[in-house]
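Posting for a labmate who doesn't have an account.
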Amino acid sequence: MAMNLGPGLGANDEDEVIGTINTTPLVDVMLVLLIIFLITIPVVTTSIKVDLPRENNVVRQTLPENVIISVNRAGQIFLYDTPVKNQADLLARLQKFAAMQPQPEVQIRGDAQSEFAAVGRVMYAVQRAGITQVGFITEPSP
């Protein structure tokens, strides 16, 4: 029969508390993670060689026959300088331009602070009218 007499009185060296942290498993896990990342990074990057198109900004001139549609900051649509009442009115006006031969180019001027939905509505109306030449007017980069 065994009896515990407290610390220091008949205690074995086996029962001592270890006060240090073993960092070997932590280092092993970190090295394994490092190896996994080093192996997977080349796989994540695109490995297929593709020749991407280069950006080509061509300065275009506004001709008198071009149709200019503007969208202001509030999302209001203007055909030349005349405000458009609604989407149906814009579509009806654009269908007249689509019937012309040759078809004029539509140039969309969207305010930088306007919502994309307003410009998207203009693009949708242009597409529904059947106009094939569409451009966006932007400020040239300095």
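Reply:
Got it, the structure tokens are right above this. The chain has three helices and five strands.
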